[in-house]
Design goal:
heterodimer; A: 744 residues; alpha/beta; eight-stranded parallel β-sheet; B: 601 residues; alpha+beta; seven-stranded antiparallel β-sheet; two-stranded antiparallel sheet; 9 strands; 56% helix; flat
Chain lengths: 744, 601
């Protein structure tokens, strides 16, 4: 359908539209008009993504003289694929109605691992080895050598791409990662470099959060994006965590050992170059004297991860004299590693601010703040000079330099925590030094400054006034939408007691109580026998899930559950989890029915939809609080209290409940869908906890469903499923009639 | 598991002279051509040694009844009753006896009139027998018919089943898909320790072995490599059990130590490399909207040591022990995947080696196929684009209808009767069955036609009073749903169910027996042999016995129901009349012709 919002004609690829989608578009348009940032909460299952895409592309089409670029950030690659396929749908519709004028270029961007089509490279095991394998074939020095010596292997796709030079462009259209690979294969061009090049020219770019938020990646990918862009962070309820993680580093013993190996290797290389090609080292020295940390025009294939500090904070001055010479720099690194090693020997937990740490480095290792700040750039330059292409081997020293640069750059919003062992396993020494960032606003600040509109949106942004404080920005529009419903398509309930009427909870004192474990198991057993198709269970942590599943196995409960449905489980191994998910879907598709065990805050909870028959019921076992004894969390809470006056308890509850809401929200994707949600913990019945749930869940939570026991919940589930089934009957009856007509 | 090679069956049983008799405990031994019974008490006079040649038939009690009985009837009229301790024992013997009788029956019969009895006593394999018994057990109506006609002597066993070949086959061919999926039951590695000694026992059945092979390709591969060249089968499983035991103790370090000493044991203890490789291949096939592995590629925060360490993965172990760690979750996923895939091979379970080989083959073929499947890719893309659409904002495109398949004949009968009432037609139900599996497209087309017709007519018609329209719609909706209700299994409101229970049962019984008899009756025409002639006569007699019973029913019911009942009975009577008419005509024809040709045919 096609309609006007003020001066913009919106092309919407469906025949109908939900009222809240329309309202959402109106608010979004206001924000775009005002060239300001906005914060929008809209329940899952109301077609948020298509509303966003449809409005922003239509907005861009209506202003051809001053085209805006649209940068859409997703948390995961599979969400990227989903978004792109929705965009494809929309684009086809716009082409139909507007003709060639609607042509846009939209593409997804990911790492080499997901885009490379060179079979020898892509077969490498992980991202870093793929990157390194690519670099071994495409680095400028390798190609120079290959030009003289044809026996040195290069990548034909990259060579072809380079040869075509300015002709290598993507025709307009919408390209998913798979489409990019297919196009690359067709043309013989490297899809990765092609995509990276086209990102600058595209109308719509879809990529991961980190490509904007993590300065290491943003520095090489996103630094040339125009100001007239609309940046959207979808599913942004966790954005503060992404921001703080982007600026955090941790160092372990293994890191130090690896770094020492790296330093030794570099010093060998330096010796070798001194013997064979001393001019190269001298050239680097001269360049550094002139004040250039890096050669300005690096070929794309040489680019490594950029400086971990934010672009505004990077010093634009010459590298200090005492680390200009390669061997001097290496000895500084050696001293730094030695110093950190010494700090890790501690027997007690230590916590200090960056300033104190830098001062102590200065006195004990003789490395001043400025040298620390330049560590990363100096390392990068040295690696280029030494022509090191197996970068995956050098991650350890890179970590050390990241740490040094960050600690040398920032004086507030960070702390350094050294723990000699894990709190939960005091007998195993596992010293770790963590530089943790507490201030989410740091990483996102450049984004707010650089782009004219930033849209932060998700299904769960409650309480909505907290986000502007956490991220420190002023939205021009900040609204929360409710869902308009013709029928109850979600049915949340709070289960407080098990079948034996004893309370259930994952609270610390009840957590390992066998009675609670049994009650939880019984609950699931009841549900698998009542609910058809898929059921998803979320647990509070991996260790809790492992424990409880094992105990269900030992007591035979698991066996009983398996008599009704197949059981799949999320593990820490993504490959395995992905395959398990795939099988889970197959089991739901074929009618066998299955249960998926997953973890709140885990990868599955973050990005996988369990809509329609893939999830008729979701059970949240417990309240997913963070591990409250974690020093990092405590430090962050302290920081939040001191700077934003946010109470510890409030923040913890807010954080736990947004995770819970996020988990249960996975079951519904459209209003034709139906899903039940069980919050299985007595603490959910308390008002202070419950009220933190988003409005669209609360509005469906009836008073009668606030304090249920297992048998009552099973009854409600049974009735709910039945009612839902009866709604389908009319459709079936009509079909029956037609068959009858046909046969008589 | 009745094995064909199984030559001797020995079971504990009691011999009874009659059903009430407490019986003499002893041992029943069955061989190919005879059975012997030795009482536990050697002084007891009850000893038997009987050849199967003399045994005419066998009867048995149903599973789950009070006693597990097997009754062998002898030619001369005597019989032997055995009571078993449990039903499985009995069933083993029963199957064995069935095949033995069939075997000896054929061998024993010297030269029977073969032409006259074309399919008298086919030799039945145990499997065939089992299948028939299972069918009878599952379907009580069939069982009733079987009892009435086969045991009543109107039809022979073979004749009865001959018309149901399809049922048998269908049942058989569907087997690998639906009937016996793998048990969704993890072979719990919990060993049976007897508490006193240090011995631990594991139980392995062929079913479990199949499961192990399917879930753990490395064990399968090891089996193929090691047995029988390097070790015997027994040694192999002992070693495997030892490995499982080590895992169950969760002592990773002990496992690693043992593995270091014994390289064969290490195969079981290490992580399954084949699984890992398989996973890597499979991951390329996965729906990209699920592919979490791809995320790792974009995740620059969780570079080793970047970002905040996740709170959970704190299971620190030396890297040398890493390969020996195995998680329960992994096992769980693998198990579910295998169960979901179902039984992929069709091999007798007893032979471990062939099972292993067959599994290896299918796996290989599967992986080879995966590599180059463009079609799959396309299908996946289509699926994604379908999934991305928001269904309720979109006008519906393809209707999601599945072809009807009616399983329970009673349901079918109910619905047919209801139809008969509504249309007042006298369709004999058989013809309709074919129409029930209308393809999706056909159904859709017809629906569309109806709608367009309505649209068209609605346009030509002057405007309808909205109240009337509402009434009609309401009525329609109610009618549809109530009709649906009738067709369902609501016990109180179906047409048939309004009848008294006895009448209903009787009617149903007669209906099914008439169906059965008519089927056989018509299938014996044209009559070409004497055998068929006698069969037809027998069938006609049986039918003429039912005829008056139907009349009786019609008259016995209360007057208000009589109309309905007569409507029900009418088609049956008509069918019977037609059969009788045909029979009479044929007899006349025959006698007229027999004058011309005195020697019969």
């Amino acid at each position: 359908m096609k309609f006007q919002i003020e001066d913009v004609t919106v092309y919407f690829p469906y025949d109908n539209i939900y009222p809240e989608q329309y309202a959402y578009m109106v608010e979004l348009k206001r924000a775009l008009d005002a060239k300001g940032h906005c914060l929008l909460e809209m329940p899952t299952g109301t077609g948020k993504t298509i509303a966003l895409l449809s409005l922003i592309t239509s907005y861009a089409l209506s202003k051809p003289s001053n085209p805006i670029k649209f940068i859409y950030c997703t948390r995961t690659v599979h969400e990227m694929e989903k978004t792109l396929s929705e965009l494809k749908l929309l684009h086809n519709y716009q082409l139909q109605h507007l003709g060639p004028a609607a042509k846009i270029l939209a593409l997804g961007l990911s790492s080499r691992k997901n885009l490379c089509i060179n079979p020898t490279v892509v077969s490498a095991e992980n991202r870093d080895s793929v990157d390194a394998a690519c670099r071994k074939l495409t680095a400028s020095w390798v190609r120079e050598l290959a030009a003289e010596n044809p026996r040195i292997p290069t990548c034909s796709f990259f060579e072809n791409y380079e040869k075509s030079a300015s002709e290598a462009i993507l025709p307009p259209g919408v390209y998913t990662l798979q489409d990019l690979r297919a196009y690359g294969k067709l043309k013989g061009w490297c899809p990765y470099f092609l995509a990276r090049h086209m990102v600058q020219l595209a109308n719509v770019v879809v990529y991961s959060y980190q490509y904007l938020l993590d300065p290491k990646v943003a520095g090489i990918i996103s630094k040339e994006m125009q100001r007239e862009s609309v940046v959207v962070f979808d599913e942004a309820h966790n954005i503060d965590n992404v921001c703080i993680e982007a600026l955090s580093v941790s160092v372990r013993m293994q890191t130090l050992e690896g770094a020492t190996r790296n330093i030794n290797r570099m010093s060998q290389e330096i010796d070798r170059f001194k013997a064979t090609d001393a001019g190269r080292l001298r050239a680097e020295y001269n360049r550094l004297v002139e004040g250039l940390a890096l050669r300005g025009d690096l070929p794309a294939s040489d680019a490594w991860l950029a400086n971990p500090a934010l672009p505004n904070d990077i010093l634009k001055e010459a590298v200090p004299g005492n680390i200009r010479r390669a061997e001097h720099f290496l000895s500084v690194l050696r001293r730094l590693v030695q110093y950190i090693r010494g700090r890790l020997q501690t027997e007690n937990v230590e916590k200090e601010g960056p300033v104190a740490f830098v001062a102590s480095v200065n006195t004990q290792a003789g490395i001043d703040q400025k040298m620390l700040r330049f560590c990363y750039d100096r390392l990068h330059s040295l690696m280029l000079t030494l022509e090191i292409s197996d970068t995956d081997e050098f991650l350890h020293i890179q970590t050390i330099c990241d740490f040094a640069t960050l600690v040398g750059t920032y004086t507030r919003g960070f702390s350094i925590i050294i723990e000699p062992f894990d709190e939960r396993m005091p007998h195993i020494p596992d010293p770790v030094l963590q530089l943790c960032c507490h201030d989410a606003s740091l990483a996102i600040k450049p984004v707010f400054e650089r782009f004219q509109s930033v849209v932060i949106t998700s299904g769960t942004l409650s309480p909505i006034d907290l986000y502007p404080r956490l991220l420190n920005f002023n939205p021009v529009v900040s609204r929360s939408f409710t869902m308009s419903l013709t029928r109850d398509c979600i049915c949340p309930m709070v289960l407080t007691r098990g079948s034996d009427q004893l309370p259930v909870s994952t609270k610390y004192d009840l957590r390992s109580d066998p009675g609670v474990e049994k009650n939880y198991g019984k609950l699931l057993l009841e549900m698998v026998s009542v609910v058809p198709d898929g059921i998803v269970c979320f647990f509070v942590s991996y260790s809790y899930m492992d424990g409880i599943v094992n105990s269900w196995h030992e007591t035979g409960l698991l066996k009983e559950i398996m008599q009704h449905k197949l059981v799949f489980i999320e593990t820490q191994d993504v490959v395995e989890t992905t395959l398990a998910l795939d099988n889970y879907r197959k089991a739901c598709d074929c009618g066998r029915g299955a249960v998926f065990f997953s973890v709140a805050r885990g990868k599955v909870a973050e990005g996988i939809d369990f809509d329609r028959h893939y999830g008729r019921l979701v059970i949240m076992f417990g309240v997913p609080f963070q591990y409250t004894l974690s020093r990092i969390l405590l430090a962050r809470l302290e920081y939040l209290r001191d700077t934003f006056q946010i109470k510890e308890g409030d923040f913890l509850t807010f954080d736990a409940l947004r995770q819970a809401a996020q988990c249960v929200g996975r079951v519904i994707r459209s209003k034709a869908d139906y899903g039940m949600m069980i919050f299985a913990d007595k603490r959910y019945s308390r008002h202070d906890k419950r009220s933190k749930l988003p409005g669209w869940i609360l509005s469906h939570l009836r008073d009668a469903h606030l304090n249920l026991s297992t048998d009552m919940a099973a009854h409600i589930a049974r009735e709910g499923i039945k009612e839902e089934g009866s709604q389908m009957i009319i459709k079936v009856a009509v079909l029956d009639l037609s068959i009858a007509c046909d046969s008589t | 598991m009745a094995d064909k090679q199984q030559q001797v069956v020995v079971k504990r049983a009691r011999h009874k002279s009659s059903v009430k008799d407490p019986g003499t405990p002893g041992v029943l031994k069955l061989t190919k051509d005879r059975f012997t019974f030795m009482p536990n008490d050697p002084s007891s006079p009850v000893k038997h040694n009987v050849e199967f040649r003399t045994i005419k038939g066998h009867k048995f009690t149903k599973d789950g009844t009070k006693q597990a009985l097997l009754n062998l009837t002898q030619d001369q009229g005597g019989n032997y009753i055995f009571e078993f301790e449990n039903f499985p024992d009995r069933n083993v013997c029963k199957d064995f006896v069935a095949s033995a009788i069939a075997l000896s029956g054929e061998a024993g019969r010297t030269v029977p009139e073969k032409s006259a009895v074309p399919i008298q006593d086919e030799q039945l394999s145990a499997a065939e027998m089992e299948r028939r018994i299972k069918l009878l057990q599952e379907d009580s109506d069939l069982q009733k018919l079987h009892k009435q006609f086969v045991i009543g002597g109107i039809l022979s066993e073979a004749e009865f089943w001959a018309t149901r070949k399809k049922l048998l086959e269908q049942n058989y061919s569907r087997r690998p898909k639906q009937r016996v999926a793998l048990k969704n039951d993890m072979w719990s590695t919990k060993p049976l320790a007897d508490g006193q000694s240090n011995r631990v026992t594991f139980n392995l059945t062929p079913e479990i072995i199949l499961q192990i092979f399917a879930e753990k390709p490395a064990v399968r591969q090891a089996y193929l490599n090691f047995v029988p060249n390097k070790m015997t089968e027994k040694e192999f499983w002992t070693k495997y059990s030892r490995a499982e035991y080590l895992h169950s103790t969760k002592n990773v370090i002990a496992a690693a130590a043992e593995a270091a000493e014994d390289e064969e044991l290490a195969v079981f203890l290490k992580q399954d490399d084949m699984l890992v490789n398989e996973a890597r291949k499979k991951i390329r096939q996965v729906d990209p909207t699920l592919d979490m592995e791809a995320d790792e590629g974009d995740d620059y925060m969780h570079l080793p040591d970047h970002g905040l360490p996740r709170n959970d993965n704190k299971d620190v172990l030396d890297s040398q022990y890493e390969p020996y760690r195995r998680s329960f979750s992994q096992h769980l996923n693998q198990h579910a995947a295998v169960v979901l895939q179902g039984r992929v091979i069709d091999v007798e379970l007893g032979d471990t080696r062939s099972v292993a080989e067959a599994l290896a083959r299918t796996k290989h073929a599967e992986l080879a196929k995966d590599a180059s499947d463009v079609y799959l890719d396309k299908e996946r893309l289509e699926r994604i684009s379908r999934m991305t659409e928001i269904e309720d904002l979109q006008a519906p495109r393809d209707p999601a209808v599945a072809p009807l398949s009616i399983k329970d004949p009673r349901d079918y009968f109910d619905s047919q009767q209801a139809n008969a009432f509504s249309t007042l037609g006298d369709t004999v139900s058989g013809a309709k069955q074919l129409k029930c599996s209308v393809s999706t497209r056909e159904a859709y087309c017809s629906l569309k036609e109806c709608i367009s017709e309505i649209k068209f007519q609605g346009l030509t018609e002057p405007t309808i009073n909205s109240e009337v329209a509402f009434k009609v719609l309401n009525g329609l909706a109610q009618n549809i749903s109530s009709n649906k209700y009738h067709l369902g299994r609501n016990p109180n409101e179906s047409v048939l169910d309004s009848l008294p229970k006895i009448t209903r049962e009787e009617l149903l019984l007669h209906w099914s027996s008439i169906q059965e008899l008519l089927k056989h009756f018509w299938s014996s025409y044209p009559i070409t042999t004497k055998y068929l002639l006698t069969k037809a006569t027998k069938l006609k007699d049986a039918m003429s016995q039912i005829y008056p019973k139907l009349q009786e029913i019609k008259e016995s019911v209360q007057s208000d129901l009589r109309h309905q009942v007569s409507l029900l009975v009418q088609p049956m009577l008509q069918a019977l009349d037609a059969a009788f008419a045909h029979y009479d005509a044929d007899v006349q024809n025959r006698s007229a012709r027999s004058g011309e040709r005195p020697n019969g045919f």
